[in-house]
Amino acid sequence: MLVLITYDVSTVTSAGQKRLRKVAKICQRYGQRVQNSVFECIIDSTQFVSLKGKLTEIINESTDSLRFYQLGKNYKNKIEHIGSKETVDLEGPLLF
């Protein structure tokens, strides 16, 4: 299933800056960054529970926020991209 993850981490303090880096690093393990604080992740339900738990442990719920959008398996016709950044096929082959 495709899960869209968005986050907003307060970076007023050095602890907040550290949380922001941790959140981004964990999201990069599971998916592709499509904008600064937005990741697209193709994961199964077990991975989703794990990812959500890891991120929830990091953030400060009084100053930060996380959003998870579960777009499911038939996500391709739910996404429209307009603009300069090239769309990445998350299920396509990786080219180095």
TrEMBL record:
Cofactor(s) named in the record: Mg(2+)
Enzyme Commission (EC) number: 3.1.-.-
Swiss-Prot/TrEMBL keywords: Antiviral defense, Endonuclease, Hydrolase, Magnesium, Metal-binding, Nuclease
Short name of any one Pfam family annotated for the protein: CRISPR_Cas2
InterPro entries: CRISPR_associated_Cas2, Virulence_VapD/CRISPR_Cas2
Enzyme class: hydrolase
PANTHER family: CRISPR-ASSOCIATED ENDORIBONUCLEASE CAS2, CRISPR-ASSOCIATED ENDORIBONUCLEASE CAS2 3
Subunit composition and interactions: Homodimer, forms a heterotetramer with a Cas1 homodimer.
Protein name, entry field: CRISPR-associated endoribonuclease Cas2
